[in-house]
Structures are given as structure tokens and as C-alpha cells.
Amino acid sequence: MRSPRPIVGLLALLALLASLSVQASLDLYRFDNPAQEARFRALTHKLRCLVCQNESLADSDADLAHDLRQEVYEMVRKGQSDQQIIDYLVARYGDFVLYDPPVKPANYPLWFGPFVVLAIAALAAAIAIRRHNRPDRPPLTEEERRRAERLLAGTDNDEGDKS
Amino acid sequence: MLRYLVPLVLFIVLAGFLWVGLHRDPRLVPSPLIGKPAPEFRLPLLKDPGRFMTTADLKGKVTLFNVWATWCVSCRQEHEVLVELARNAGVRILGLDYKDSRPDALAWLQRLGNPYVAIAFDANGRVGIDWGVYGTPETFVVDRHGIIRYKQIGPITEQVWKDKLQPLIEKLRAES
Predict the structure, then answer these.
(1) Which structural domain range is residue B51 located in?
(2) Mind telling me how many Å the CA of A94 is from chain B's nearest CA?
(3) Which of A89, A156, B9, B169 is the least crowded, having the fewest Cβ atoms under 10 Å away?
């Protein structure tokens, strides 16, 4: 059996490299205090990059993401509130920039659609169960009873060996 | 009967959603600027940095405001269509040269022709952000009152012109 060590070493190296790159991207921005930096990081993580749409502004390497990070950075430095910064971007790019879109009529299907589907499914299940358990189910006819007995006894080839 | 009908209806609804989804491009993000006045800006002209283009220049006539750059591959393809439109369709086209280099842009116009009445030079892309630009080329249709009426994301092709822009511009021109 092979020693796991080279893999562990490689992983450690990768982790080290990854931490270096995080360090590098942080170094571009200097803040007056840690609270500002925390706000900047939180904001850029909940805003979406429009170019590579499955990445946040913080993660994206697209040119536009860089510009928008710079924009957010300057607004944070100027002491603008989170809401002001979000409004600024939404006014230009729409709700699409938000990973957490607001609850408003245009977004209702997004927010409540899954629950509607769930409710429909629950209703369908309830109806099916109720129908299944109905006590006033008509008794079997004589013909049906005989067929059931045959099936239970295994002498019936109703299901057929069609192999 | 019902036990066949319900799954069938569910299937048709689901297939309908998927069918529509197939024909939608997730890269096309609707602009919140439609129906709003064009964002305020003042930028030096590409050809003459001493003169400026402002939002007021968009008013008075139905205008195509085309965002382009020489580093943008599909702008190259679009450019021929724009030259053709400026020459034969009598449409006024203003340009926004987005995050570009002046010498490159001037050489490009020299080589490929210039369909623009004037071109604003947005060196750092700040004005582009105000217009919600996220990929070039993008083209805004601005009516004579300076209201943005439509945004074309991606290159204007002859098809796009015939199907969308031309009918819209004719309609806007007919408006008082």
C-alpha cells in the first residue's frame, strides 16, 4: 500500500497557495477599521457578478467585478450604509445583483412557488390516502373474491409468465 | 381517467416550463433603466478630448447609444452592421467607447469606418456602470425626450435590426 504522505503534502501546499491568494486580494483594499472591512466583505459576498453569474462580486475575477468591488469599496470608505450601496447597484443592474432578492410581487413566484408546489403535493397525497382508507368501499363481488383467492393461492396465471 | 389525466397535465406544464427555459438566455439580464431617463454623464469625446458629450446630447431625436470597445470581439462583427445602418437607415448612433485605449479606437474607426455621430470616451468604465453595462456590445434605444426605451444586449445583427430595433424606432419616431 502506498504511503498517503505525498497527498497530504500536496494538500497542505494547495491550502497554503489558496491562503496566499486570499491574502493578495485583501491587500488591494485598505480600510480605516476592521468594521469597514467586515462590511465590505459581507457586501461583496452577497452581491452577484453579472458576467460570471454564479460567482459573487468577492469571488469573481471578471473585469466588471473588479470595477464594482472598487465602487463598493469607495462607498464603504465614504461611510455609505449597506442599504445605500445595495440601492446604488440595484438601480443600475436590477434585483439580479442580489443573491437574496427582495420579497415583492415580481419575485413572489421565486419566494413562494416552492411552497405552492409543496402544498399541491400535500393535498394530492391527502386525497389519495383518504380515498385509499375510505370505509365505505364497496365489498368485492363474488367474481372478484374468487379471483383474489386464486391469486393468493398462486394457481392463477392472470399475471402471466410472459418471459 | 383522472389517474392518467393528472400526470399528463403535470408533464405538459413541466415540459412547457422547460421548453420556455430552453429559449431563454440567462446572460440577458433585464435592465432596470428601461422607461427611465438616461443616466447623467459628461465625458470627453474620443476624437477631441477637449469637447464633451453629455446626457443632453441624447435628446431631440431617437438615438441608438452603442457601448463598444476594440477589445470586444462581437463589437467587430457588429460594427459592419452599424456602418450599414448609419449609411442607409438614417438612424442616429452615438457611441460610448468603454474602457478602451484611444489610439486603438481611433485606428479601428480609421480602418472599419465610423458610423457614430459622436463617441464619448469612458476610460475607467464609470459611466458604463451608471448605464448598467456588464458586457459589450450593448445598445440602448433612447427616445427624443432622453428616456431609455430598450436595451439590446449583444451585437446588433441584421435580424435584430429587422425584428426589434427598426419597428421600435419607427414607433418612437411616430410618437409626439
Answers:
(1) 35-174
(2) 5
(3) B9
Contact between chains at A90 and B32 (C-beta distance less than 8 A): yes
| B8 is a domain residue | no
Contact between A96 and B132 using a beta-carbon 8 Å cutoff: no
Distances (CA, A) of B62 to A5, A91, A95, B147: 69, 24, 28, 10
Residues 6+ away with beta carbon under 8 Å from B152: B138, B139, B140, B141, B160, B164, B165
Q: Tell me if chain B has a CB within 8 Å of the CB of A90.
A: yes
In this structure, what CATH number is given to the domain that contains residue B66? 3.40.30.10
Residue B47 belongs to a domain: yes
On chain B, the residues whose CB falls within 8 A of the CB of A128 are none
Cβ atoms of A75 and A84 closer than 8 Å: yes
The whole-number pLDDT of residue A159 equals 54
- Report the chain A residue with the minimal C-alpha distance to residue B131: A92
Task: Answer whether residue A27 shows pLDDT above 50.
Answer: no
What is the rounded distance in angstroms from the CA atom of residue B44 to the CA atom of residue B118? Answer: 10
Pair B12, B126: CB distance under 8 Å: no
Q: What ipTM score was computed for the predicted complex, to two decimals?
A: 0.81
Q: Tell me the C-alpha distance between B99 and B105, whole Å.
A: 10
Pairs across A and B, CB distance < 8 A: 37
C-alpha grid cell, residue A56:
459573487
Single-letter code of the amino acid located at B23: H
Angle between helical axes of B73-88 and B102-112 (0-180°, round to 10) = 50
Set of chain A residues whose Cβ sits within 8 Å of the Cβ of B100: none
Query: What are the residues whose beta carbons fall under 8 Å from the beta carbon of B26, sequence distance 6 or more?
Result: A53
Q: Can you tell me the distance from the alpha carbon of B107 to that of A35, in angstroms, rounded to the nearest whole number?
A: 48
pLDDT in tens, B69-100: 999 999 999 999 999 999 998 899 999 999 99
Nearest Cα to Cα of residue B32 among B131, B165, B127: B131
